[in-house]
Amino acid sequence: MEIVRAALASGGHKVTYQNSPYERALFEVREGRIDATVPTFKGEASDFTFPKHAVSSTEYCFYVSRDETWRYSDRESLGNIHFVATSGYTYGQILDAYISENLEQSVTLLRGENIPDRMRRMVRMERNDALLDDRVLFEFDKDNKDLINAGCLPERHPGYLALSPKTPDRSKTIAEAFDRGFERIQANGQLCRVLEKYGLTARFVPHLNAKHCSR
Predict the structure, then answer these.
(1) What is the pLDDT tens value at each position of the chain, 215 positions in all?
(2) Residue 168 buriedness (CB in 10 A; 0-12 / 13-18 / 19+)
């Protein structure tokens, strides 16, 4: 979000941000009630308008209690566990198919508010064996020390500022303004300063020219 705000602010645009359940946010954008969601994968909203530049790269990982011996390696390794994840997210073709086939049998999808807290609670209470979440977001939270990484999905997903299909001209204008701003803050080093604030390297942003970052 800070990357989006900085890129658009560099061109004189103001961004108003609110945190909403993801499925609701996608619906609101699709209806044209708000301009955009971020970060969104192209596979989650193929009818939206996307800028050229992505703002993030998401790696999804499984997390378990410290005394849990299970580890993820491939689809077959999921056969003996029940895991919880977020409804409305795309996790890649293979895992999306597995979730669709095993929903409510060995997979629980959560909707609504406070999903990260609810997923952690379900694992801690042993209602689920594992949770599936964004690695950067999960490991940035200091409340997760009792849960460990049990393996990550091989696919990484570029996340974008995804703009409403309801207002194509406005969305195209915002996308172009974002791309100009993104290139501006990359060139002047502001983009890398945002990443450094969170302990992230240039690898977090797809195709970011690492020579602009000191980390």
Answers:
(1) 999 999 999 999 999 999 888 889 999 999 999 999 999 999 899 999 999 999 999 999 999 999 999 999 999 999 989 999 999 899 998 999 999 999 988 999 999 888 999 999 999 999 999 999 999 889 888 778 899 999 999 989 999 999 999 999 999 999 999 999 999 999 999 999 999 988 888 889 988 876 767 54
(2) exposed
Cβ(159)–Cβ(38) under 8 Å?
yes
Q: How far apart are CA 94 and CA 78, in angstroms?
A: 12
Alpha carbons 147 and 66: distance in angstroms, whole number: 6
Do 163 and 140 belong to one domain?
no
Task: Please give the Cα distance from 122 to 3 (Å, whole number).
Answer: 32
Q: How many domains are contained in the chain?
A: 2
What are the Cα distances from residue 104, in Å, to 52, 77, 84, 147?
A: 37, 18, 10, 23
Taking a C-beta distance cutoff of 8 angstroms, is the pair 205, 196 a contact? no
Residue 77 amino acid letter: S
Q: Is 181 helix (H, G, I), strand (E, B) or coil?
A: helix
Same structural domain for residues 131 and 184? no
Q: Are residues 135 and 204 in the same domain?
A: no
- pTM as predicted: 0.85
Query: Which alpha helices (DSSP H) does 51-127 contain, by range?
Result: 93-102, 115-124
Tell me the residue range of the domain where 129 lies.
58-156
Are both 133 and 66 inside the same structural domain?
yes
